[in-house]
Amino acid sequence: MTRELQGNWRLRRLRRTAGLRRLVREHELDAGDFVYPLFVQAGSGINAPIDAMPGQFRYSVDRLPEEIAEIAGLGIPAVLLFGLPESKDETGSGALDDGGVVQDAIRSIRSAAPDLVVITDVCLCEYTSHGHCGIIRGGDVDNDSTLPLLADMAVSHARAGADIVAPSAMMDGQVHAIRCGLDAAGFAQTPIMAYSAKFASAFYGPFREAADSAPQFGNRRGYQMDSPNVREALREIAADVAQGADLVMVKPGLPYLDVVRAAREATDLPLAVYNVSGEYSMVKAAAERGWVDERALTLELLTAFKRAGADIVITYHAKEAARWLTGS
Fold first, then answer.
1. Which of 143, 142, 168, 139 is nearest to 153 (CA)?
2. CATH number of 28-326
């Protein structure tokens, strides 16, 4: 560095104190950015810990109000619901039941916290006996015969009071089918948050225990995205936008920050990223062994999603992060 530059190029000047760093910070993390996933199980009196996801639980609907009060009290604006039904069958018929576990949970949350945004996952994998995301024909998931079921499931959720429906089955045309179904049923105002770039990932392992949704044969690589592909992810996003998606998502988060950035540059729609179960559980496992500072690591990770371009962060760390950010 030349003498002339020594007096000018001092990038460390604005890093000297916490106040200076905050003043010039480019991205801020806030509890209002978070969506907290919840697993709702048929039955009563259930508050069951999930072994693979320390700090996470399956709740029966009667145990939800206390949890919802805590979430709302922390300033977290939204929850994402996954259902574990009482029974499963080949077609996932329980997903369409207006008296199903998710539908009952929506009504309970609407009563307990009317201002909390309720998002519902729209997929059949938790309801089918085979664990796949659609109807099986000839040993494979049949795309087109699955679409009407996804549309009916979304309508049932909207009828129960869902604010947003979020199709995650990765069936071609699912957003269009759901948009048409919602509009025809009188729910033209219900937004769709599309799991547009959902990759076939090893990071979903703990979730499959939590939701009891592991495939009983084969895998989901024939319909979820192949992890090396970015351009294909942008085509998926463009297709969902054209079909009427109101929000789009990239899932998982941390291994796909490049896809989040590319998605941000490709669309002006609100962009969500899902900080999935495997990412959460790795942090928890390392923290339990004293290998990392969980608070510092988690906030750094969540900030990375915002820096990459996400507007919304779906994370199992939402409650802890909200407390850390507010000092509560």
1. 168
2. 3.20.20.70
